[in-house]
Task: structure prediction
Amino acid sequence: MHILITGAAGMIGRKLTERLIIDRALGAQLVDKLTLIDIVAPTRPVGFSDRVKTRAADLAVLDVAKKAVSERPDVIFHLAGVVSGEAETNFEKGYRVNLDGTRALLEAVRAIEGYTPKFVFTSSIAVFGAPFPPSIPDDFHLTPLTSYGTQKAICELLLADYTRRGFLDGIGIRLPTICVRPGKPNKAASGFFSDIIREPLAGQEALLPVSETVRHTHASPRAAVGFLIHATSLTRDQVGPRVNLSMPGVSCTVGEQIAALRRVAGDKVAARIRREPDALVERIVSGWAERLDAGRARALGFRAEDSFDDIIRAHIEDELGGRIAN
Result:
């Protein structure tokens, strides 16, 4: 089986690659070839095989997407994208990467006669916009209130239509906010959800730009990789005509996040969070979904953590070797 991962240098791309190398299989099929693409060349994985290609490439550039799929990969994980905060502050870049790059990839697949790969697209709950019901159903209307959400919503519609027409076998995974993201803070408006956990656990101060009453839905990187892999096992009949679906997660307030951090790591760690309001972040987050009804995804076998405490523990196990900075 040949797998193409776009956005492979990003956090989820790296985690997915690591999982595939460990498992050596996707479902019941052996993974014997990987093609990893990102705007910067992904690190070549060690211990897999010689059949790994890594490329620095911009899918929005003419013929780049065509070359990416020229060897007809069996599964395409399309993870490449500009994050929410950057898409809002850099309008042209957001549309170029999030929309133009995705459209180019879909068109490159369509152009190959008789080729219908499994195409797993990472969307976002940012496709929804306020006002919201108490719990947002899977088929809630797409009324995004950010450029990022708009770009993802357009791509969801494209994915559904290309799948309906039989050009590919697509499924769109609306990720909740992935937390706790390893590494350094990025330009995602949602980044503070991870920052206020990751940095204190590492002995560093973290800034909280919003009120503790802000509520959001989260899943760990471990769960996100599980979503992607499970998506490849589902048939078109199982998914049905609505190919984009919201993933399960833990809905909690920022205050409840901090309380979980205190339970897991203690008062000293939680005290490293400093309040510093940011009007742009507050505006972006205020238009995001708070609670999701992920019943359809759960019925299809997608699973996430049961509590935010579990999300914190997953980060400590996976990224910190079980150790917390006191």
The domain at 2-175+220-246 is CATH 3.40.50.720 (Rossmann fold). The chain has 13 helices and 14 strands. The mean pLDDT is 94. The radius of gyration is 19 Å.
